[in-house]
Design a protein that fits this description.
Helix content: 40-55%
Distance between the termini: 38 Å
Number of helices: 11
Oligomer: single chain
Number of strands: 15
Structural class: alpha/beta
Largest sheet: 7 strands, parallel
Strand content: 15-25%
Strand order of the largest sheet: 3-2-1-4-5-7-12
Length: 310
């Protein structure tokens, strides 16, 4: 069994990753900033390491002995200004890569995103040959592209770097779907052009499966899309989740012209465009297959919400 170091371990995907790693018999150290986050990762069986991602001098010694470094921490506020996006996502990624390399870690796995490819046009049946877009007008997307390039460029003999890109990660305790449901309840959400956009989504345990397989089988310096391999119509998908979250507020439609004026990017791209991604490369090179079917994922969300309400 291996020792793993994880950033972003107290987040939605990070918690699921720690559960998987600990369940598989690995030991996990997780970087955390707060006592609350330390309690979360400790409850999952990981050893908390207190520190700031962008200040590696305070935590890099704890990376020693790790076989793999999973990097999930990033700025998650898509409305944050460019300076903060760069400091947290780019600066944090650079610090993580350098700390892992200096510690002799064999494999660095970055949790990427299709957002690194977004610059205005929808992503339709896209594979990993599509270019990163550091020129995107959306700071969130641009810095995601820069950060992923840092990871892939760092690949070197004895230091394999891989980026795994799940799309729209959902499941129990998803901050993304909880946030959208809260916006809908508050009357701050609309269906852009009817919301009937075809999109890929990724249940959280399937995202984790991709990350683990990226570690175990990823080709040096490569990126991989992973999804549920079950495309959905965004409106139907979200209406199903909203009903589970108790959203009963009428949701209006918004045409594209109005959306272009009042909905900033990248939010407008995330909910106003189709996004379909090919997973052939992950299937062929990682042996990736979704381990949780779409219907089972919906059942898990329903059961978790009903359990919380009980």
């Amino acid at each position: 069994m291996a020792q793993a170091f994880v950033t972003g371990g107290s987040g939605f995907i990070g918690r699921a990753l720690i559960r998987r790693l600990v369940g598989d018999g690995h030991t996990v150290r997780a970087l955390v900033r707060s006592e609350a986050s330390a309690d979360k990762v400790a409850a999952l069986g990981a050893e908390p390491v207190r520190g700031e991602l962008t200040e590696p001098a305070g935590w890099q010694d704890a990376v020693a002995g790790s076989e793999v470094f999973f990097h999930l921490a990033a700025e998650t506020d898509i409305t944050a200004d460019r300076e903060r996006q760069e400091r947290v996502t780019v600066g944090g990624t650079r610090a993580a890569v350098e700390a892992a390399h200096a510690a002799g870690v064999a494999t660095f796995v970055n949790c990427g995103s299709e957002s690194a490819l977004l610059a205005g046009e929808p992503l339709l049946d896209v594979d990993e040959t599509a270019p990163l877009r550091p020129d995107s007008e959306a700071a969130y997307c641009a810095v995601k592209a820069v950060a992923e390039q840092i990871v892939l460029d760092a690949d070197a003999p004895g230091f394999t770097t891989v980026s795994v890109r799940p799309r729209f990660v959902w499941g129990p305790e998803s901050s993304l779907t909880e946030g959208l449901a809260a916006a809908a309840k508050a009357g701050h959400f609309a269906w852009i052009e009817g919301g009937r956009h075809t999109t890929d989504v990724t249940y959280v345990d399937n995202a984790v499966e991709g990350l683990v397989r990226g570690w175990q089988h990823g080709r040096p310096g490569q990126a991989y899309f992973v999804t549920d391999q079950h495309r959905v119509v965004l409106r139907e998908f979200l209406e199903t989740l909203f009903s589970l979250y108790g959203v009963d507020t009428p949701i209006p439609d918004m045409d594209a012209d109005i959306a272009a004026r009042v909905v900033p990017v990248p939010a407008r791209w995330f909910v106003g465009q189709s996004c379909t991604l090919r997973t052939d490369k992950a299937v062929a090179e990682l042996g990736y297959r979704p381990i949780v079917p779409y219907a089972a994922g919906l059942t898990a969300v329903k059961e978790a919400l009903f359990s919380d309400a009980a």
